Amino acid sequence: MSLQFIFREISSADTDILHMIELRKANVEDYLCCEVTNEDGITNTTWYSKEDVALWGEDYIRANTTMEYSDFTGWIISLDLEPWNDMQEASKKKKQAPCFQAPSWLEGHIKEWKQKRLTTVTLCSTSGNEWLEVWYYGDLLTINGEPQLYIVPSYFAPELVTARDPESGEEFVVFDGGRHGYDNMFCDEHDLDELERRTLKRYEIPASKLILELGYSIDYEDEKEDFQVNEDGMVALINGERMPWEQVKRDGIDYIALYYVNEEGKQVQILDNELA
User: Could you write out the three-class secondary structure of the chain?
Assistant: First the structure.
């Protein structure tokens, strides 16, 4: 199918895109709207960060984008990043084993770890079970007509997501929107009483394999002088607690996304959060 593309600035008419950017606590000026029109003259829109467009190039996006119709969701625009990842791997003259990096709160709960454009981990209980239920605090929101519901903060408090092993009953925190990531560690203050009062509900999917994408684009070593590191190597957080410097580099992620793998083996995103 021949597709036509127009890359433009986001306008006030792009309400769904604006809402998603607001949830990420990001700047509209850092993103572009992409209008895609198929050979039948049907137009749909998606959006990319200007940084990603500069990285991939408009030609790559044009060559690897599809626009398909579903009876359940309508027209869906998809960008295939596998060719990009393959090209990057092929262009490396010296292949170095990536350094394992993951947040400390996930220790004992990582079944598989991969370093792609983002750090990608498959979750498990301490017994190794990958089939996990999702429990959450927050609101549920549909984005751009997608059939799944995204977990977002409530009016009263940030979101909280846990995984529960239905066999053992073990539960562990996947993401705490009031404590995890750079902004929550150094910028955003939260009512501790509200954080403690958050009660969980089950996200209505069967026990599934859960996959996290984690962003580590902050160069902490390069910016170390900007942090309050004492002689014992401890760093002051905005809530008054102190954390070891090496743990700051692990826990201070700037992005997180959560997916579950559905019955067809496809990854379905249910959490998307910019954290810096």
Answer: CCCEEEEEECCCCCHHHHHHHHHCCCCHHHEEEEEEECCCCCEEEEEEEHHHHHHHCHHHHHHCEEEEEECCCEEEEEECCHHHHHHHHHHCCCCCCCCCCCCHHHCCCEEEEEECCCEEEEECCCCCCCCEEEEEECEEECCCCCCCCEEECCCCCCCEEEEECCCCCCEEEEEECCCCCHHHHHCCCCCHHHHHCCCCEECCCCCECEEEEEECCCCCCCCHHHCCECCCCEEECCCCCEEEHHHHHHHCCCEEEEEEECCCCCEEEEEEEECC
